[in-house]
Please model this.
Amino acid sequence: LKTPLKQASTSQLVLTERQPDCQPLTTPPKPKETPPADPWTPTSNLKMLISAASPEIRSREQRRQLSDSSSEVLQTKHCLQEHLLGDEYEKSQPSRKEKSLGLLCHKFLARYPDYPSPSQKSYICLDEVTEELHVERRRIYDIVNVLESLHMVSRLARNRYVWHGRHNLPQTLQALKKVGEENKYIQQIQMIKRREYEHEFDPDGERNEEMASSFGSSEQSEMSFVELPGVEFRAASVNGRKYKSLRVMSQKFVMLFLVSTPQIVSLEVAAKILIGEDQLEDLDKSKFKTKIRRLYDIANVLSSLKLIKKVHVTEERGRKPAFKWTGPEVLPNTQDIKLEATSTTCSPPISESITSKEQCSKALFPSKGKQNFTRHSSLIKLVKSIENDRRKIQSAPTSPVKISASTYLFIIFLLETSFSLFLSQMTAEEMQMKCALSSPEAVPKPEPSQQPALSQPLGVCPASHSSVSPVILPHPQSGVSYAIYLHPSQAHTVTTYSPGFMLQPLPCANVTGIKSNNSKILNIITTEEGDAQRGPDEPAKSLAAEERPEMKSETSSQRCLKRSQALPDSNLIKRRKSDEESLDTSLTFFPSGYLIPLTHCTHGNKAECSTKEKAGVCSLQHTAYSSPITGVIPMPASELKTVNIPAFHITPLNIMLSPNSIAAAPVLSNSCLNSSSTSSAPNPSSSALNFMLQHIGLIPAGVQVPANPVLQHVPVSSQSENISHSSGSTNVQEGKVIEFTFYSPINESNFLFSLQFLQPKEPQEPQAVTENFFRTPGGPNTEPALSANSDGTQRTSQGTLYIPQRKLEVSED
DNA sequence: TCCTCCCGCCAAGCA
DNA sequence: TGCTTGGCGGGAGGA
Model:
């Protein structure tokens, strides 16, 4: 029944609306007026009746017939098509794509200026729009609802809306972001993802119940429309359908982007969050499908607004649709915090010059006091519930999420900026010098006069530095010197969250700094807790810390070294626990970042770089690298011999890599460590693995873990056995995948990291690196089941552990 | 086969 | 009571 009706009606639409414009054709023109007594379909009949009843519509019809040459061309084309094909109306129908909501939205938006003059309001008459765009009213509602959610339009009366354009967009987005943060959407996203993985291993478990309790009941967690000052919300059925409204859904959807990092949201996650807040108990496939449908509707409109862009996220379970935020960056409004407590009765400002403070506060606390237009009070419950849930997992501050996020951010930061800049600005000679200075026998002394501006030692780094500095340090165990990069914020984060990580990088505490010309990038960080707990925005303290005598860090290093040496064969977990106890709070450390071996510099001051290698390093010195985030500067292959600059997109959940990025990083020199190695070139997987392990503090610097046992990259380090115990297993598939776990004694949790290096199809195609985490069930007192499976079968070895398998590859269509 | 989303039914609620 | 609004899901087009 449905299909014939649809075809008939659409065909009729073409006839009734386009035939009158066929006059310019050479073929005999059809009569302008459709014969009243010859209705083709009920739809056309209805339209005719409507037209007859409404003089306005009639006059519009006449106006339309006289204008719009472009549409006339289109109509002519259709008319011609009709003539040519006779009754084959179906073939003359616009394709499904031509009728898409996105295209329709484009047409709709083209009618109105992005930034209309405030003095000249544009009004939208739905009848007019539906007529002129030749669409059903229903479709316009879809568009208008989404636009309304962004306060680009507002309803004035029946059939009548006001067009605001993008004037309100920044304020709206800011308000949405704030509400999204308050709703802890990011935690919800993470929770959903985690439970997805849990569900894989416990499909019949009571996860739904748990999830429901986290989200709260539907009544509790429903969230309402976020209002903006001066943009009144007059939805027709605001009281009845508001919670399921496309407007609210749209706002929530946007919130997810605004709080996510990166700003990529999959439809699946978005739908689950929306369902979770709506009616979790009714979570079923049909509801999910419906939500997805609506999200497509919203996404189409948002895409037309160029706020989002469709991408695909490839996971192990398949390619999933997702959307990436391409709209304006929404900066946090630092003033908002103050507002929350004070501005509940803010008078409604209307003018364009309204301050963001007022707007935001109004958005969050409407003057009318209608709670249902802002956050629902039950959100507090929701947040508490989420936090409780998190506490269950994260009994100690060593949050997997936080660690992974900070770690990855750190990785990104390092690999994108510091490392490349560092290398690009160091000559081979400087490298050698640093290596020499960094040997234990020759603890570096700050001698500014001898140091070029770009390579000053730790103690003389001016406070104007910032962020991150590379530090060259020796590694007595491996005989390789390393460059350490550390980001203050990372140091702060990790130290604050995870004392369990403090044990690791200590053998590397003999530091000397190298200052970069780029003050934005480089800074020296010491490895003391006190420093670590400083915020990056405390340069004075930072400087003071940097000027501490090296004795202390050296002592720290030695202490750590002693510890690590005193426990050569014990289980690393126990060692960590022991370390934790012995360290107590008297002296703590934080991960000092990646240890980047300067593979050509031998430990002990007799650094020698081969001519070839030196040339490789030197070739970098004049090369300017740029972060791919701010702009990619592709490097010639010749410059990638020694170092490749990674192109990352960072996220707590995934990392995107450009080809060869990690693989070519000079992380490890097998020749220094592994006499059995036949190649001086590092095994990419092994390098990356050690790179990561060292950074996250799982292994001491210099200890090398075989990323690919099959390839016999067995470390010669005496401590490698410890690693195999603690890290569970490593796994490399075709040299492309690394999985390993590490254990946090603080929260009794294991973390699984999985690095996957996908085979690039094209040179610049991003590769995916995945990060996984799971926890040991059984509560904080459960002794984690750690074993060293060589095949990466943590599922077995860990019993019931949750093995998320996320291999995210984000690709744009 | 699955993704995408058009299409229109029909109910809520407004004028 | 008629009309507007919009939730909802069937099912078709497209990849």
Notes: DSSP finds 31 helices and 16 strands in chain A. The longest helix of chain A spans residues 400-425. Residues 101-198+241-325 of chain A form one domain. Residues 2-3, 6, 95-97, 126, 137-138, 141-142, 145, 158-159, 235-237, 241, 244-246, 286, 289-290, 293-294 of chain A lie near DNA strand C (CB under 10 Å from a C1').
